[in-house]
User: What shape does this take?
Amino acid sequence: MSPTNRTVVVTGIGATTPLGGDSASTWEGLLAGRSGVKPLEGERFAELPVRIAAQAAVDPGEVLPKPLARKLDRSAQFALIAAREAWADAGYTAPAGEDESIVPERLGTVIASGIGGVTTLLDQYDVLKEKGVRRVSPHTVPMLMPNGPSANVGLEVNARAGVHTPVSACASGAEAIGYAVEMIRTGRADVVVAGGTEAAIHPLPIAAFANMMAMSKNNESPTEASRPYDKARDGFVLGEGAGVVVLESAEHAAARGARVYCEVLGQGLSADSHHIAQPEPTGRGVAAAVRNLLDNTGLDPAELVHLNAHATSTPQGDTAELKALRQVLGDDLDHIAISATKSMTGHLLGGAGGIETVATVLALYHRIAPPTINVDELDDDIDADIVRGEPRKLPVEGPISAINNSFGFGGHNVTLAFRTV
Assistant: This one.
């Protein structure tokens, strides 16, 4: 451990998801086991092989002023809404500098997206073809940039220590949070607003994912389509939204009397180097990331009580993840209550690590694990304790820890660890 290392804590959370327009309603939906998956309406989706998705419960256009919303891609709209909630939840009352408890040069943002402003890109191309050059929005380039969400959040809070956007497909949100931890630990920042966002519910991405045979085609039963670990699972369901946390050095949080949700122990990273889209079937890369996490943090596996799994509801990925955990954790996997919240939110791609970090933080803070829904018949290869049907109480005494896994096309593996305070 470097002598510059500092303890990092979570002081604020924010979210807008298929289950609710803020973190409280999202958490309520998770504990209730409510699915956010619905049929897609409109002619443009009618001929697709997949006609379901987990759309945001609250449209961002209903929350943001119209002049602002017109200048932001949907992914940036989600990020800004979640970041505003997290910033206020952390106890900040104004941008850095105006709120004298944080100076701009000690504040950063790291908001990730796996795809960026894809809907802006595709919609503005349609405008170009159908209405001509002069009708293309002058805001198009800032809107479609993958760093747009992080940049806009940085402008909102007046962050000058750094504004960053790691892009690693479905691991992007988790990698953003890990990067933010390192910014604080190395002394570059005292506070970082971090998370992930995604807004890719559009015919082209859906058609492309469907043709890869990656998505569920259970159009007849949308709420039952995302079913991690179930024998009948047939692919993921696309979701949208954002999850954001405010991370802070423990010293800075204590100095201003902030409420602390939990400690962030650190991250583990690896790459599969196997296939651009398929998971490495033995779980080798995932196992390496978990070992890296344990080595970096000194986390005792006996202390682990909860996992928010990547578990997208794909036949190969769900089992590979658990195989990897068994390789590293051995019998300690047996006392870990595993939740697959994508069964309710769908898969938010680059936003998944953000919202699932929010869920993991709240699970530790309230000492309760949300259920995994739609597991009617557990896959024979699932050798682990899956929380099914109802929420599961976690130990009420002593320190407990949890991990959150995120993996992405390209073989990116990120695992984050958290501990109660």
User: Anything to note?
Assistant: Residues 30 and 330 are 29 Å apart (CA to CA). The mean pLDDT is 97.
